Amino acid sequence: RFDVDVSTLECGLNGAVYFVEMKADGGLGEGNNTAGAKYGTGYCDAQCPHDLKFIHGQGNVKDWHMTKTGPVGAYGNCCSELDIWEANAYATAFTTHACNTLGPLMCTTDEQCGETASDCKCCDGRNGHHLSEDCPCCKRYSGVCDKDGCDFNS
């Protein structure tokens, strides 16, 4: 049992406890991975993070560059995610993020990763566009994972 005080956690911030479908050993022995989960390898989630330095024992060095939010590479690592507690001072939610994969998947294309180009102007649903159907650069909903998830606000 544990207690968490979120009374000072304002809107826009999120305290979270969640499970992901990563391998317990962090992929130890895959490719050149001699580190394993103990040293932080093998992480994945339904957002298909691109800021991982190693995915499935390979360096994520292709197109590695800095962004406003930190470094990213060309590939992401996707897996199912279960957020059992997401909260701040005003709300609490439970969210499932399913993926159509079994275990972690290194995504290699925008479609597979569910990535939308930063210069895509039609992906926000405004101006009569219906996301992926009318907007060829909107890839968020073509990926292997449900990035938005299905929330239950408790």
List its traits:
two-stranded antiparallel ribbon, mainly beta, globular, 154 residues
Strand content: 25-35%
Give the helix/strand class.
Answer: mainly beta
Q: Could you spell the SSE succession in H and E letters?
A: EEEEEEEEEHE
Q: Would you report the number of β strands?
A: 10
Outline, from the CA principal axes? Answer: globular
Number of helices: 1
- In round numbers, the mean pLDDT is 89
List low-confidence stretches.
Answer: none
Question: Can you walk me through this structure?
Answer:
With 154 residues, the chain is mainly β. The protein is built from 1 helix and 10 strands, in the order βββββββββαβ. It has a 4-stranded antiparallel β-sheet, with no helix packed on it. A hairpin with a 4-residue loop joins β7 (81-87) and β8. The protein is globular, with a radius of gyration of 17 Å. The mean pLDDT is 89.
Short structural summary:
This protein has 154 residues and is an all-beta fold. Helices cover 3% and strands 25% of the residues.
